[in-house]
């Protein structure tokens, strides 16, 4: 059985000068330090300490071998999105990042699946970037869950998702730039602990309640990271509101629970009991192994929660790899 991790990140080697392409919109670059450590930089400011698995493919592959992961889908770190930049500059930036991700994954083409990023602030440029990246060898696209105040129900983002469906490009949606930061601040990493699940739930519900899923092709392959955030655990609340308030069901002809077959989620919930509920809500065919590798808030023993969960053998095999092979159109190649 091939074990596939759909949620991993890379920060390819990018210099301070190359980061200036974003001209004040974050300007992310990598500072390599000694001893296999480094720093994600935002302009001249330190953003987050990181380790070499984030940018060194040999160290990544060694970590995969130790943990029994055969394949990783590799996506950029959200700091790199560039959504606040001028669209033309962002398009050039995405092309640079996408090329570096291809070069990184070329070190092990059967094991590292490159996912591109796009200038999502401009629909036409984003569609063109996704098409170009797919032709160059990217196996999917990685997007943030919002661009400023525009969430996935935004007409431009819906158009982009429809384009990906037509092109056969899978889409991985990652929360970022979390809401409520002005109230949570940096205390106890609350933006990650509270804001990330809320962002993902908000994104899924906007797609459902706006009726966007009714307009999107069923061929769209869409996955939300971090176990769908708060959505699976508050689905009963959303259904109850849909049944009892016309303002909730105004644009959605079916309750939220009727749309769980329209998207996938990863398994990054860190507790077998939570994963069991996630599988009951979404179905075992809609959950894929995801670890957030190589960040310390990710699952440090990939697949441990899946293996510890009360699942049937077929369900476990599907989550550890079968569903991801279907999502990315992979063949069973490794044993």
TrEMBL record:
Pathway noted in the entry: Secondary metabolite metabolism; quinolate metabolism
UniProt enzyme class: lyase
A Pfam entry, by short name: Amidohydro_2
Alphabetically ordered keywords of this record: Decarboxylase, Lyase, Metal-binding, Zinc
Catalytic activity, EC: 4.1.1.45
Amidohydrolase-related domain segment(s): 4-330
PANTHER family assigned: 2-AMINO-3-CARBOXYLMUCONATE-6-SEMIALDEHYDE DECARBOXYLASE (PTHR21240), 2-AMINO-3-CARBOXYMUCONATE-6-SEMIALDEHYDE DECARBOXYLASE (PTHR21240:SF27)
Subunit structure: Monomer.
UniProt record similarity statement: Belongs to the metallo-dependent hydrolases superfamily. ACMSD family.
Protein name: 2-amino-3-carboxymuconate-6-semialdehyde decarboxylase
């Amino acid at each position: 059985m091939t074990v596939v991790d759909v949620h991993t990140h890379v920060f390819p080697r990018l210099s301070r000068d190359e980061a200036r392409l974003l001209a004040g919109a974050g300007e992310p670059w990598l500072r390599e330090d000694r001893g296999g450590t480094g720093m994600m930089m935002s302009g001249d400011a330190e953003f987050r300490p990181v380790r070499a698995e984030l940018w060194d493919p040999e160290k990544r592959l060694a970590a995969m071998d130790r943990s029994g992961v055969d394949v990783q889908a590799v996506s950029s770190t959200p700091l790199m999105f560039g959504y606040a930049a001028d669209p033309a500059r962002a398009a050039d930036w995405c092309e640079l990042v996408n090329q570096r991700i291809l070069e990184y994954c070329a070190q092990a083409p059967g094991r590292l699946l490159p996912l591109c990023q796009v200038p999502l602030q401009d629909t036409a440029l984003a569609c063109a970037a996704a098409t170009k990246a797919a032709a160059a060898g990217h196996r999917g696209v990685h997007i943030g869950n919002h661009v400023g105040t525009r969430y996935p129900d935004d007409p431009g983002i819906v158009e982009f998702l429809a384009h990906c469906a037509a092109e056969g490009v899978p889409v991985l949606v990652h929360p970022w730039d979390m809401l409520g930061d002005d109230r949570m601040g940096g205390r106890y990493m609350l933006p990650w602990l509270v804001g990330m699940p809320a962002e993902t739930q908000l994104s899924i519900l906007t797609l459902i309640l706006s009726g966007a899923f009714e307009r999107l092709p069923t061929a769209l392959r869409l996955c939300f990271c971090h176990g769908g955030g708060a959505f699976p655990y508050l689905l009963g609340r959303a259904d109850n509101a849909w049944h009892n308030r016309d303002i909730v069901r105004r644009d959605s002809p079916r309750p939220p629970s009727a749309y769980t077959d329209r998207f996938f989620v990863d398994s990054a919930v860190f507790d077998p009991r939570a994963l069991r509920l996630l599988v009951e809500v979404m179905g075992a065919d809609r959950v894929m192994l995801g670890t957030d590798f190589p960040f310390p808030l990710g699952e440090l023993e990939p697949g441990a929660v899946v293996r510890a969960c009360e699942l049937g053998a077929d369900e476990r095999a599907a989550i550890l790899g079968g569903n991801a092979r279907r999502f990315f159109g992979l063949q069973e190649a490794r044993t």
